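Repro case for the chain-ordering regression, as requested:
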Amino acid sequence: MYRTVAALILIGAACGTLLYGINAQTYGEIEKNRTQKAREIMRSLLKQPLPDKIQWVEGISGSCTQGYFLKRIENGYSGPINFFALYQQDASSEGVSNPERLSLRVTRHQETPGIGDFIDHERDSYLPDQDGQSVAQWQELDNIVGATITHRAIKKAAQNIQLAVKYHQEQYACVE
Amino acid sequence: MSNNDFSRGAIENNPAWAQLLGLCPLLAVSNSVANAVGLALASGFVLLGANTSISLLRKIIPDVARLPCFVLIIATFTTVAVMVLEAYAFDMFTRIALFVQIIVTNCMILGRAEAFASRQPVSRAVFDALGTAVGFTIALLALGTVREILGNGTVLADMDLLIGDTAANWQLTIFTSPPLPLALYPPGAFLLAGILFAAVKALTAKDDTIERPATQSEAKQ
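-- result from build under test --
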């Protein structure tokens, strides 16, 4: 019994040490690649050049006049789905508030290939096709057979992004 | 013995056409040579690392918990492959990431661990892993080449994603208009894999007209 437990601890420790070492070696490069990809997505969503340095405050960047970029993680069928969003809203005019425009992209996911990977904008045009819809319109999207949980994660992300923007606007004044 | 282990894994007991193992990533990723090479390298690395480690630790791994230990070791090497690909071949990683992550459930690797590496010395386990990895690579490359030519009309496209700028001009255009675009899709993959495996079976078929011992009723007659 003790021998079995000791063996399991030894094997676990060896595996953990190997992963720790490889992570230390590759972490910088991985972060650099992810940042670069995020910038490419931001540029393609905003359709204009980005500043060299982008400041993030609690997963949100931008302003109420230009729009907000948000990072959001929701649970999918096979693990976390990393969303990247552009949330824009034109200023209210004559007391009528304009609906917000939300565009979503997925930067990382582990959804089932062929079923849940429609959320990958490089494989499928599903998310780009919904660009600029309001949060209410995102909620009304038809369900996708076989990918209910993945689809639910998209709707939840849209809702939570709106809440996060509202909270952010309450915390920080709307300045250019 | 080691040569036998290698050739048995690569040809006779080839994981793809002889044992039909690892078909999910094989069919999904083999739509181009570049993707096939990427997955072959990742699978080969995990197979070699897992076989070597399991063989080294075979006297320590408790028999009652051997499968969790095998899965832990395989998952460790799969995670290493994922991290290295994401760090140094990011564009390729984004194309084959899903299938690299599920290497951990590839029964080809768990099968070699259970059936061979856990019972044999390191040298034999290494040759078995190399043979199996080469066999899987041959199947991936054969299918990847045929699918890319028929479905895309090219060979070696996008190899720069894996190797770097030196491979930027490696692409050969065989057909300006792809003759069978279906080849890039799952039904095409199944059809071509079936044809490929049947062809290999036909080429390597042994004479099966071996005399069997007569049954009792036949003997009485």
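Ordering looks correct now. DSSP finds four helices and four strands in chain A.
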